[in-house]
Design a protein that fits this description.
Helix content is 70%, strand content 0%. It has helices spanning 2-20, 25-53, 69-73, 81-95, 109-127, 129-140, 145-157, 163-185, 187-200, 216-234, 250-277, 284-295, 299-303, 307-315, 321-341, 343-354. It is a multi-pass membrane protein.
Length: 365
């Protein structure tokens, strides 16, 4: 097909020029000049066409450069991943800088190291399915020169994780840290955390002497960190300032939804079978679950209670609904008595009765 095109583009105009030469001389000179210019232009177009049609599929700077990754590893394009891995391990053992021994006159340590890096690059390219598809497409379509550059650097430089998830997770951590910093300034929580640290003996003792003796600032920083850790552990922050967790991201929840749904159904079926049909007695774990559900507390809130309080719940048998109702009324009456004797609560009730929140006043309290 190419030879046929050469005939029509170059040889045929030459024959036409020979026919034109039988015309008068003053016309032959102009026609011959035009014919020669036409042949030069056609020849240049043919050279450019032939050059672009034979662009090399191997591009320097991409993948294995001007060498084929398949030839570097000594495998065919149809080789499986296991064959590629086997060939890589053999060549890696041979050209590893710690084991390479030059056997030829033109081989040196530097050439062995370059060969090892080339083998590693070829393996990294062919072991990944997506990279291998891009590389095979480059070999089959060498004319798409700039497209190969874009595909190569897009895979090389593109982030592996969605940037939006990273930003969301970082902002979530910032909100949680801000909440902890605020709770560190609240005297109520700070005093409680300090008391817990003293009871558990977590505060450092300044008895070191000599080189191991620490300054007061270092001890104060350590105490602040202990108080911060206790507040993080004991306080259950909810809402937009709660402690971030990967499982709380919407995408993870959607992915794990079938699993949690199956676990929920299985747990309810087991509960119904054991305690409704068979009539088994509740264990401590089930009793504490019923108590926590009656009190409408989260698992973290319930776990933050001290052991004596939880033992008192079990002693009062609060998993029984009637017992819990009695306990709830006792707590409400106790709260009313405390509020009745509280001076601040009395002042608040007088203010609500005489003035109320909708009345303007210039009183300081």
């Amino acid at each position: 097909m190419i030879l046929k095109n050469v005939y029509y583009l170059i040889i045929l105009p030459t024959r036409v020029g020979d026919v034109i030469s039988t015309r008068p001389q003053h016309q032959n000179a102009a026609d011959m000049a035009a014919s020669s210019q036409l042949r030069v232009a056609i020849w240049l177009c043919f050279v450019l066409f032939w050059g672009f049609s034979s662009v090399s599929a191997l591009i320097d700077g991409l993948y294995c450069g001007t060498q084929s990754c398949y030839e570097v590893l000594g495998v065919s394009r149809d080789a499986s991943k296991a064959e590629i891995g086997r060939a890589y391990r053999q060549l890696a053992r041979k050209y590893h800088p710690d084991r390479f021994q030059p056997s030829k006159s033109d081989e040196t340590r530097e050439t062995g190291q370059q060969k090892f890096l080339l083998v590693a690059t070829a393996y990294e390219t062919l072991k990944d399915e997506d990279l291998r598809k891009d590389y095979d497409y480059m070999l089959d379509h060498p004319e798409e020169y700039y497209s190969h550059y874009y595909t190569y650097y897009r895979r090389r430089l593109a982030p592996k994780v969605d940037v939006r998830i990273v930003i969301l997770y970082y902002s979530w951590w910032s909100s949680y840290t801000e909440a902890i910093n605020y709770l560190m300034t609240v005297p109520k929580y700070r005093i409680q955390a300090t008391e817990l640290a003293k009871q558990q003996g977590l505060f450092p003792k300044n008895k070191e002497k000599g080189k191991n003796r620490r300054s007061k600032e270092e001890i104060r920083e350590e105490e602040e960190q202990i108080i911060r850790d206790i507040i993080k552990t004991k306080i259950d922050i909810k809402g937009g300032y709660q402690k971030p967790n990967i499982s709380d991201i919407l995408l993870c929840k959607i992915i794990l939804l079938p699993y949690h749904l199956c676990m929920y159904v299985a747990w309810n079926c087991s509960w119904f079978y054991r305690f409704t049909l068979k009539g088994e007695d509740f264990g401590n774990e089930e009793r504490l679950y019923i108590i926590r559900r009656n009190m409408k507390m989260s698992q973290a809130q319930f776990d933050s209670l001290d052991g004596n309080t939880i033992d008192s719940f079990l002693e009062k048998e609060l998993w029984i609904k009637d017992n819990y109702e009695v306990y709830k009324k006792e707590q409400e009456e106790e709260m009313k008595m405390k509020m009745a004797t509280d001076s601040r609560w009395k002042r608040y009730r007088r203010w609500m009765k005489s003035e109320g929140p909708g009345r303007l006043t210039f009183a300081d309290d």
